[in-house]
Amino acid sequence: MKAYKIPEATVIRLSIYSRQLHLLKDEGVETVSSEEIAESVGVSSAQVRKDLAYFGEFGTRGVGYRVDELLGHLTKILGLDQQWNIAIVGAGKLGSALAVYQGFRERGFAIKAVIDNDPDRVGQRLADLTVEPLEMLTNRVKDFRVNIGIVTVPASAAQAVTDLLVDAGVGAILNFSPRVLKVPAYIVLRNVDLSVNLKVLSFNLSYRR
Amino acid sequence: MKAYKIPEATVIRLSIYSRQLHLLKDEGVETVSSEEIAESVGVSSAQVRKDLAYFGEFGTRGVGYRVDELLGHLTKILGLDQQWNIAIVGAGKLGSALAVYQGFRERGFAIKAVIDNDPDRVGQRLADLTVEPLEMLTNRVKDFRVNIGIVTVPASAAQAVTDLLVDAGVGAILNFSPRVLKVPAYIVLRNVDLSVNLKVLSFNLSYRR
DNA sequence: CGGTGTGAAGCCTTTCACAGCA
DNA sequence: TGCTGTGAAAGGCTTCACACCG
To answer: The domain containing residue B107 runs over which residues?
Structure first.
């Protein structure tokens, strides 16, 4: 099968499948069934097969999937066979944490710059990076061909910083600020609102059962 | 209308509406239409009205909604009129950032303990808290009636720490580790996987248009 | 025989469009 | 008149169930 409209939920699951396949590969497992993948992720096996079917036929009937082969397909599907350059804007606690976070320094992703407008933070070392002033943002994005901007500034500054990132040429924004951002339609935007997550837990705890 | 099965997407939007209403209230706005809320959040006005309709009739036809009144309803719906006690397990960069993050210290949420098993981190001060050893986890959860556990340990420790939290009596877990956690069905679980977010951006950048 | 790939069915969410009411 | 509240329609995602094939 081949398709252009892939559900977001499918993309999220695919990246989780890929994570599980890495674990299996490390264990030396060579073959896996959709049922086994499903069980380890907590979804149905039909879901796994449908998700994969958007992109091709990767399995062998009666057998299952070859782990390393499927992993290769998923890597390509998710675009992880190319490098993505990242700039983090906002070197507060959260931005600093992300800058040195290992999960953000995986194969395929490279943090190229950390920016802040607070003179006290500029010059600070974060792993192999140095916090640079806001004025450097546009040049850094252009020099390093930054594709992804991560916004970890306070809500009041979020839209302004986003506009700078967009004008400088990033293609995607990962927004950690509690603000609804306006971006042009051609920009890929994802929001990771930490306090919204707590509120969803609060709701579910209140209405449990 | 009244219902028991509320879509998760609705709950997420409700907490964003509540955030926008706070902004309006601070500006002194008294009345708002579903269209205005929708515009500020980036959804359709029918969506806003449907979301609210799960819980009651809060508006006035021909007029709209009274800002403070609707805010009161949303606060109650989301369970933010009660206090939720939080324990953060894992005082690495991310856990520490969350411990002092203002968005996590809003009305309704109180961080009661920060736990880590690394002796070098135990005793460290984080805002008004002190990092405590893993052995204290169960007691702290019980003493402070902790409802929500936040997991910010490495993947290898995530399931063990989760089991401890569940056994100690938390009702909900917010998981920041890149691991699929197994929890009993009565536990509310949410995953905030930072690297999955990057991978979703990667996918969308690769397949844009 | 066993597990994939996939139409079809079922379910859930969103959008439409308008009746109803202040 | 204007905007809410809501059935009905549309659209999208998940599950079912089985043909198909190694």
So the answer is: 84-196
Q: Are B152 and B89 in contact (CB under 8 A)?
A: yes
CA–CA distance, B34 with B45 (Å, rounded to integer):
5
Q: Which two tokens stand for residue B94?
A: 């991310």
Q: How far apart are the first and last CA of chain B?
A: 40
Tally the domains of chain B. 2
A164: domain CATH number is: 3.40.50.720
pLDDT at A101: 87
Residues in A closer than 8 angstroms to B92, CB to CB, are 97
DSSP structure class, residue A180? P
Handedness of CA B133, B139, B144, B146 (dihedral sign): positive
* Entry pTM: 0.96
Residues A106 and A31 in one domain: no
State residue B56's pLDDT score: 97
DSSP character for B180?
A: P
* CATH number for the domain that contains residue B20: 1.10.10.10
Distance B30 CA to C19 C1' (A): 27
Residue in chain A nearest B42 by alpha carbon: A180
Residue A192 belongs to some domain of the structure:
yes
Q: What is the pLDDT of residues B10-62, one digit of tens each?
A: 999 999 999 999 999 999 999 999 999 999 999 999 999 999 999 999 999 99
